[in-house]
Design brief:
four-stranded antiparallel β-sheet; 301 residues; seven-stranded mixed β-sheet; alpha+beta
């Protein structure tokens, strides 16, 4: 199905992600905006985790690897960052031109303003404050490739091809910069609950009581002392976008990137990050004996 007109990225900027980014069609990384540091992803039991600093603003950086446009439907805590709806693959997202990059810095409030992403305790997160705590602590990016445009080649008449009435309109649309794309708002709002559960931010099914999986989860839950980290609805900032069209190559994403996050203390408690072993100072077994010279000393001066 063809997508309708939607918002577009007005600028391409970002730091190089390097080894701290994830993805094949595009690099995806989480940036601490207050320090400029790219958060290191830790691989643990089949998932990638990053450690956020409570109170810090952050951004989701996406860098398109391809020489063609990509659509990135992005969710935080199971919520679409553009519409605030329960996230689903067929909703609005950001579109990136070939080789383009951009930092998504907050919840989209209008075509010129966002509310900054901030790491905060789960009860203060936007998802939990709006009654949706189930997926707090996960970032999802669903990437779609674009359907190639249909080439219209009418028969020539007298050596000159006829001009279609929509020629200039189509050129104007295709000249737009990268964008975020979506279908009608009514479609996003009427998405069934099971579709929302199939997004990148959906949690894994809970393990039944008494199962080996539950036995592994229980010690982690007891070890975690600090509140779980979520994403808050921060201060308003200017962030300009405009509209374009994007036709998806297929209904399902070509790639889904999932990044979980929590505080450093919680990741240490869960075992996601290994605690460094304390290093003992050099101990002297004969502290009462003077140190004796064993080799030829240097001359004075």
């Amino acid at each position: 199905m063809k997508s309708l007109v939607c918002f577009a990225v007005s600028a391409a900027f970002a730091m190089s992600c390097g080894a701290q980014s994830l993805g094949s069609l595009a690099d995806v990384a989480v940036i601490d905006r207050d320090t400029g540091v790219t958060l290191n992803p830790y691989y643990y039991r089949g998932e990638y985790w990053v450690a956020g600093r409570p109170g810090a603003r952050y951004a989701i950086e996406i860098r398109n690897h391809l020489g063609e446009r990509l659509l990135a439907v992005t969710s935080v805590d199971g919520v679409n960052v553009l519409s605030g709806a329960d996230a689903a693959w067929d909703q609005a997202g950001y579109v990136f031109g070939g080789g383009e990059s951009y930092q998504i810095t907050g919840w989209r409030k209008s075509s010129s303003e966002i509310a900054a992403f901030t790491f905060t305790a789960s009860p203060n997160s936007y998802a939990e404050r709006t009654g949706r705590p189930a997926n707090v602590g996960v970032i999802g990016v669903a990437l779609f490739r674009e359907k190639p445009p249909v080439v219209y080649s009418p028969p020539t008449i007298g050596g000159h091809p006829p001009v279609r009435p929509d020629t200039y309109a189509r050129r104007s649309d295709s000249a737009a910069a990268g964008a975020f794309d979506g279908r009608q708002e009514s479609l996003a709002e009427s998405a069934p609950a099971d579709r929302a559960a199939s997004t990148a931010g959906a949690p894994a099914p809970s393990a039944p009581a008494g199962s080996p999986q539950a036995a592994q989860i229980a010690p982690q839950a007891k070890a975690m002392q600090a509140p779980k980290l979520g994403t808050g609805h921060g201060e308003r900032e200017y962030s300009y976008v405009n509209y374009t069209e994007f036709a998806r190559l297929q209904p399902q994403p070509n790639e889904v990137i999932r990044i979980r996050y929590d505080s450093m203390d919680n990741l240490l408690a869960m075992g996601v990050i290994k605690r460094p072993r304390p290093v003992s100072p050099n101990l002297n077994p004969f502290p009462g004996s003077p140190q004796q010279q064993q080799f030829v000393p240097d001359p004075p001066g």
